[in-house]
Amino acid sequence: MVPARLRGIDVLVKQEGLFPTGSYKDRGATVLMTQAARLGVRRVVEDSSGNAGTSIATYAARAGISADVFVPATTSPGKLVQIRSAGARLHRVPGDRQATSDAVWEAAQSCYYASHSWNPFFFEGTKTFAFEVCEQLGWRAPASVMIPTGNGTLLIGAWLGFSALARWGLIDRVPRLIAVQAERCAPLLRAWRLGLHEPADIVPEPTLGEGIAIARPVRGSQCLQAVRQTGGEVLGVSEEEIVSGLRETMAAGFFCEPTCAAAVAALPKLSLADDGPIVVPLTGHGLKAADTIGKLLG
Length: 298
Ligand SMILES: *Cc1c(COP(=O)(O)O)cnc(C)c1O
Fold this sequence. Notes:
The protein is built from twelve helices and ten strands. It has helices at residues 25-38, 51-63, 77-85, 97-107, 120-126, 128-136, 153-167, 187-194, 220-229, 239-251, 258-265, 290-297, and strands at 2-6, 9-15, 43-47, 66-72, 89-93, 112-113, 144-148, 176-182, 233-237, 278-282. The strands form two sheets. A six-stranded mixed sheet has the order 1-2-10-7-8-9, with helices on both faces. Bound molecules: pyridoxal-5'-phosphate.
């Protein structure tokens, strides 16, 4: 982890974009595909147009397992190159995101569903984020962790990981987990404000935080539980805040996806922030979104 001062606050930046495919989704995919191989699985299906699809395709290739990845037909071709490069078969599904979910559900009736949002092995992998953070702090827990959240694959993994370390007596507190959403697609933020235990119904609008633009998170109630149980909070950021957070983060020497900047942009909104280290994971590499970033820079 690298110390940095962002939005006027001292933080530790964890560079999750340094994984082989450029995002922390590799944590989940390597464990999930290792287990699939042990179970003798020959073929998997997954639905994601972004980093999860890329990670599953890549680790399927490493495990010698064939992968079919379902994406909405509207997904920009650039994002699909990395998935195709690993030899996965792409299925473009006409209609909205739900149509893609329906199509993969159908396909999963006859083969293994390597879902990053449903499959528990994926979360066993994202747990390692918590292990590494504490190890890098000399087996201490940080005070807070800022987590850009859509389906909650990092949030729930971190919750499981920090909770296990506390149970084993390796750390003496579980850090506050701060879930950060883009205001334009924020079912958890809305639920949090209304005091609900399930994600709220929302009408999603497009956001620069495309990695966390999930209107109906399947583990939404677990996400809310993770935040509540650790004494954290759900914060929302506007598009303007994402852009200014991104500019500052990149100018500090961290080339990351716009999605990651949501976590940075939320820093000034933290209600409790001065009782220990604050960790900010930069979840995806900037090269993933170089076109978008180029446009933002003008
Ligand atoms: C997947 C991802 C996240 C977190 O998304 P979840 O839907 O909560 O799992 C955050 N940032 C990036 C870059 C991602 O790829």
